[in-house]
Amino acid sequence: MRSKSPELKEKIKEFIIKFHKDNMRDPSTAEIGRGLSIDKSTAYRYLVAMNKEGMLDYSEGRISTDSTMKMDENMTAAPLMQDGIMCGAPETESSDIDSYVQLPTALFGSGELFILHAVGDSMEDAGIDSGDLLVIRKTETARQGDIVVALNEDGENTLKRLKYDAGLKRLVLHPENTQRGYDDIIPDKIIIQGVLSSVIKRFS
């Protein structure tokens, strides 16, 4: 087995620290590769080796060094999911992580958070537009009136308000767009995956 270059190890560590400082998140192996003109697979192998040697911590896509951990003391790492959450008809659940985003705990709180892209217009009356970033607090329980990420028994997820329908005598997933007049979603079973915590707007 070929030994790993000590010089490249130091360059990778320095790149990670600078990238984290500039972007407030961990770099991906592809970003390390592009930044240092090495293959993505080479970056991965070096990260694994550096983890074993104690130069950094590399686990489940997260990279931590002594320097980045100090930066993260007042931050919460939230995975940014590759696929969006439908504000419309439900779509099949996807759990692929695109990257991690550092969120200030003073603004977003602590705990287990994840971020989704909003897709569709069914929650416009709640101030949620297609393209918004949705900060979701992971939980399996919610209160009536919460805006939730919900999964039904068919593996489809959507973002709607959890509402009690007095006529049906049950909870439903309620869209909020009076102009479009979307119908409530009434699955046999509602599985809560998280509750909306914050909406991050993008202005172009």
From TrEMBL:
GO MF annotations in UniProt: DNA binding; hydrolase activity
Keywords: Autocatalytic cleavage, DNA damage, DNA repair, Hydrolase, SOS response
Domain (Peptidase S24/S26A/S26B/S26C): residue spans on this chain: 79-195
InterPro entries xref list: LexA-like (IPR039418), LexA/Signal_pep-like_sf (IPR036286), LexA_repressor (IPR050077), Peptidase_S24_LexA (IPR006197), Peptidase_S24_S26A/B/C (IPR015927), WH-like_DNA-bd_sf (IPR036388), WH_DNA-bd_sf (IPR036390)
SUPFAM superfamilies: LexA/Signal peptidase, Winged helix' DNA-binding domain
Keyword DNA damage included in the entry's annotation: yes
The protein, known as: Repressor LexA
